[in-house]
Structures are given as C-alpha cells and as structure tokens.
Here is the input.
Amino acid sequence: MGCLSADVASLSFGTTAGVEICTDRYIEPSRILPAYSAAVPKHWVPEIEIFRGYWMISWFKNELGYEERIKAIETGQIPEEIMDKLLDSSPPGCFGLMLQPYWGANLRNHYAKGAIIGFGDVHGRHAIYRAIIEGLAYSLREGLEQLEKRTGIPVKTIAVSGGAAQSNRICGITADILKRPLVRGVTTETSALGAAILTAFGTGLYPSINKAVKNMVRTEHIFPPAPDHQALYDGLYKIYRQIYPALKNAYKQIQEVTGYPS
Here is the structure.
C-alpha cells in the first residue's frame, strides 16, 4: 500500500485484522511485544492485531446469515455482497448496540471474550452485523491511537487492504470511526503488489523502493470521514474503551470455571 513513514498507517481487513506503520525507529507496539523487521532496510513495522478480525464476517454468515446464503445461491452473488446491505438497516451507532470482537483472545488480554451489549427491542440480525463492523473499527482505532502514542507521530492517512476492504460501506464506517480518510488501492492483492515492488527495486527497474512505490501503487478510492457522525462515534468509542476493564475479572472467572479457552 506504499506506507513508508509513521504518519501513514496500513489497515488489514483480513481474517486477522491489523493496524501497522513503517518506522526507522525500533518501537514495540506493546511492552515486550516485538515489532516486525520491515522489507525496507533499517526500518521496522510495529503492528497491533485483532486475532479474530474480519473473520467475524464469516462467523455471521455461517451462524446468522442463512437468508443471505440462500439468496446468494439463487442470484449468483456472493453472500458478503448481500450482507453489505444489512449495514444500511441500522443507523450509525446501532441505537446503542456495541460489540467487542474478542472471539479469540489476543496477546495482551489473555482472558478476553467477545461481548455484545446494549440490546433493545429494535435490534435484529442487521444490527448485530453493523455492530460487528463498528466494533472492529473501534478496536482498530484503539490500536492506532496506541501506535501514535508510542511513536509520538500523528497518523494523517490510512491505507486499507484485505478482503473486507472491497466493501464501500465497511470502508466508510471505518473512516467515520477513525476520523481520518481511508485510501483504497486499485488492487486488494497488496501482498502480491508488495512483492512486485521489491522485485522491481531488486532487479534495478527502479533506483529505490520509494520510487517503485510512487510508480506502482495506485489509489482507487478515498473515503473521507462524515462530519455528522463524529460526536456520536467519539462518545461511543469512549464507552467501548470501558467495556474490557469493566468485564475483565468476569472473563477471567469464566475461564477458571469452564477451562475455556485453555
């Protein structure tokens, strides 16, 4: 995605969701959690991951998306395209339904479990799906702010890739919650493009990685954050950050009683 400095972050909308930056300083995103060695010489990639990230879309499809799976067979569409329309059936904030996407515990919070709170009689499947997308965006914002705090450099632009990045609605919701524009490239196969960029530099086609990036990375769409949603999402994000601390001891006790996860 051409992210070569700490003021440009990369979001991965894949099975494991992640937010990362490229920096010329070694910075651990969390204490004793090492940064990756970057493909760019003398650079590092600190990354914060959500283990069960946009895998949550598959979870919803398999557990609650029977209607969309049947319609996909009938129409020849993929279920995810049909599920995308569910995001328009609830307003921003889902009337207070909030989801914490810890369907798999992460490295920092060993006892974390998934949680959905705020149910009311207006909430149905459509609200659960939007709460998944919003919850993932809240968690990515948390990781982004942690990286900014560690580097002392504010992120101005965010490049997005991965399967779920093909959804305009998901990208738009995420831009609103992160309060920064999201840039999507022409191809979602960014791992392959990264390999091609390094190959172009290594074989001498371009004199530097920066030059290769400038010539090979193409922007397909920019998703600006909607100003009308800022106050709502800022308020809900503050609440989101309180959920894990409030439930942490309960999660630990559940693990002790059930033995799950081991």
